[in-house]
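Quarterly update from the structural biology core.
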Amino acid sequence: MSNDAGKPQSAAVAFMVAGSAWFALGTIYGLFSAIHLMAPEFFNNIPWLVFGRTRPVHVNTMIFGFVANMLIGCALYYVPALLRTRLWSQKLGWIAFIFWQIAVLSGPVTFPFAITQGREYAEYVWIFDLCIMISLLTLVFNCVLTIAARRQNMLYVSVWYAIGALIWTAGVYPIGNVMWHPSSGALPGLIDSIFLWFYGHNLVGLLLTPLAIGAAYFVVPRVTRTPLYSHTLSLIGFWTLLALYAHIGGHHLLQAPIPNWLKSISVVDSMAMIIPVFTVLANVWLTARGSLSRLWKDPAGRFVLAGTIWYLIVGIQGSVQSLPAVQRITHFNNWVIGHAHIAVLGFSGFIALGAMWHVLPLAAGRRLYSHRLVNVQFGLALLGLIGFFAVLTAAGLIQGVGWYNGEAIYRVLPEIAPFMVLRAALGILIMAASFLGLYNAIRTLRGAPLRESESPLQEGPL
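Predicted structure, tokenized:
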């Protein structure tokens, strides 16, 4: 099909810029949540701003609005570029974009008024679940036809990860959201928890993770100007991610009466996740060997490099905290919240930002407005996230040790109160980073055209 909806990469640009906007809105709701934890009485007379209403908006906006939008936008650029063709249909790209944004927008519109399925990461009500599915299936269809029309015989690993993420999520999403029960979006009893955590963990592991890895595999060879270290390692990482990650959600239910065989599979596969994590990191870092300084000096490359380091921390921590002996201290407290932040914002979020700053000028045909603003955004986000990780980990350990030793919950709360103040303060840094990024993205779209020597990718990192 012809490139039929304006500029050749218009849908990719729309996804990326929307991701920047949702990042800003998501951090605002994150700050509302942090304020409520710091001063519970602050929003008492405004029910739609209390923690139980703002947290789902924050979480879903950051996952679906910020990170997923940016990474999908990057994929819509690099998949055709690597295949030396054009996206099969810009119209389909825009249809996917519109339905995705409708679903994300429904969060701030419905959750504050208790219109929700009430299931973590699966709060969108049925009609907006349908919007996500329409978008995913449209993206799959568009990318598959783009692959079929390719002029490059070899499928570079970034293409594998992009199409894999979309297909896997299109399969997992309706199961996790129990879409065959539109009235509730849930199943009765404990089985609902099993379905929910099968989906909840795979939302990160089979959507954000492969899209982030695909983006890293695209950006790092281009910035360092070196070929990928090993295509074999890239495929080992791809297939082991699918084989191992799909089963680990049950480690959130070790304290629940789910079947022991499911608990065992979840823990074993969680520990085995070191295989795809270390395989990917070895491949990316060996690709950049001898050129790390070039990667670090590049504004986009710096974000991606930091994202891979966060991936190392997330991978090690995620495996270790799946062990029952460790969970006795770390589960059901702020430790897990710290882990979630470095997974979504640290690993996939930093790579999403880096990939966007690399791809957006190419896709829009405009020069990046300000490298300095990208560097400032990086510094603010990194400082804020390191602080978040330290503060929430410390608060979680205080809670976990206290509860393990029989301490009452109300006696532990004053001990973690100072950490909640620090959490809110650090959140302001991340919020400032998001607004700087949105400003930079908008100014880039309105800026000077790329010079001929900077024009979009010729052949890709093959």
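Residues 1-6, 455-462 have pLDDT under 50 and may be disordered.
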